[in-house]
């Protein structure tokens, strides 16, 4: 079982959120447990708003931006071995 991380940036002005495009900030999406996923969600969302070059301080202030993230439990199916040909 793994956890899938989704990060969005929201504006308090009109309560809309958008996912950060991968070309702007590519973060790993799956984690082996909830703890790791939440830890990375906190770090990555802060990085997107405050240490990356995606948003300026003025943009964060003027648009009242804030990060939001969640971790969803997913089950990744194990690959089935290919059946052996019968003769």
Outline the structure in words:
By secondary structure, this protein is an alpha+beta fold. The protein is 29% helix and 30% strand. The protein has helices at 34-51, 57-63; strands spanning 2-11, 16-19, 30-31, 65-74. Strands 1, 2, 3 and 4 form a 4-stranded antiparallel beta sheet that branches. The longest helix has 18 residues, at 34-51. The mean pLDDT is 88.
Helix and strand topology:
Layout: E1 2-11, E2 16-19, E3 30-31, H1 34-51, H2 57-63, E4 65-74
Antiparallel strand pairs: 1-2, 1-3, 1-4
Helix coverage percent: 25-40%
Structural class: alpha+beta
- Estimated radius of gyration: 18 Å
Q: What would you call the shape?
A: elongated
Describe the largest sheet.
4 strands, antiparallel
Average pLDDT taken over every residue: 88
Question: Can you describe this structure in just a few lines?
Answer:
With 87 residues, this protein is an alpha+beta fold. It is 29% helix and 30% strand. It is elongated.
């Amino acid at each position: 079982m793994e956890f899938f991380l989704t990060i969005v940036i929201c504006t308090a002005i009109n309560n809309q959120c958008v996912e950060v495009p991968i070309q702007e900030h590519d973060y790993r999406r799956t984690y082996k447990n909830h703890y790791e996923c939440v830890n990375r969600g906190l770090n990555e969302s802060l990085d997107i708003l405050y240490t990356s070059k995606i948003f300026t301080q003025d943009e964060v202030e003027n648009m009242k931006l804030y990060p939001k993230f969640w971790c969803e439990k997913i089950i990744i199916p194990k690959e089935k071995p290919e059946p052996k040909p019968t003769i």
